[in-house]
Amino acid sequence: MPGIANLTVEEFQERINRFDQKYVRDWNSWLNTQENARATRFGNILRKWQACRPNRMRRIRTENQHDAPYLEDLIAHAAPHLRILRDFDIRENISFTKTNCDSLEALWCIFRDLSYQGRARNGQAGIVAISKAALLLTDGGIGPAFDSKVRGHLNLQNIGDANQWIEALKIVSRDIQNFEANNQIKLAQAAPHPHGGLQNGRIYDMALGPGG
C-alpha cells in the first residue's frame, strides 16, 4: 500500500479527518504541557500508545520502580540533539545533513533505553517507541511514528537500527515531495483546518496513522 504521493488533496484531507480523535486529544494535551510536567506526560502518553509493548517502560524518578536512568534523564540526554534538530523539516532533502543524521543516531541510542525489561530486543525499546518519542519531543518535527500500520502503508519491514530509521525517514521525505509536486501544494497547506499549523512530521503521521 503506498504512502501519500498518489493522493489528491481531497483524499489526503479525508485521511487526516478520519484519524482517531483520541490520539488528537493526546497530542493537544502534550503541546499544552508545562515544562515541569513534560517527563510525566511523556511517559503517560507513550504508555497509552503502547510504545514499548511487550517490554516494561521506564518511569520518572519519583515513582521509584527501577534503577536509573529515569525518563527525565533520557529527555535530558536527548536535549542537545533535539536542539540540533530544531529546524529539521521532513519534507526537505537538505534536512538530512551529516550533523542531523548523527543526532538522529544519538536519539536512537538514547531512546533504546525507554524500556528496561522484557522479552523483546533483550528488554530494549524498538522503532515504535523510539519514533514515537522523537515525534513527541520534537513536537511533530520528526515523524511519522513507525508503528506497524505506518510501515504497512510504506511497505517497510521492521526497522532495527538507526541507519534503517534514517532511510525510512528519507522514504517519507520523498513521498511528501512527490505529493507536493503532483498537487502543486505544500503539505501543511494541503492539511485540513485546524491541522495545517502542525509540523510536517505530525501531519504525515496523521495521514498514515490509525483511523477512528
Strand content: under 5%
Biggest sheet descriptor: 2 strands, antiparallel
Summed up, the domain count is 1
Shape: globular
- How many helical elements? 10
| Overall pLDDT level | 96
* Radius of gyration, CA atoms, in whole angstroms: 17 Å
> Helix fraction?
40-55%
Distance between the termini: 19 Å
Largest beta sheet: strand ordering: 1-2
Q: Spell the H/E element sequence.
A: HHHEHHEHHHHH
Task: Outline the low-pLDDT stretches.
Answer: none
Number of strands: 2
Structural class: mainly alpha
Gist of the model:
This protein has 212 residues and is mostly helical.
Can you walk through the features of this model?
The structure is a single chain. The protein has 212 residues and is mainly α. It has one domain. 52% of the residues lie in helices and 2% in strands. The chain has ten helices and two strands; from the N terminus they run αααβααβααααα. It has helices at residues 9-17, 21-31, 38-48, 71-84, 98-111, 127-137, 148-153, 162-183, 187-190, 200-208, and strands spanning 56-57, 115-117. A two-stranded antiparallel sheet has the order 1-2. α1 (9-17) packs across α10 (200-208) and α4 packs antiparallel against α5. The mean pLDDT is 96.
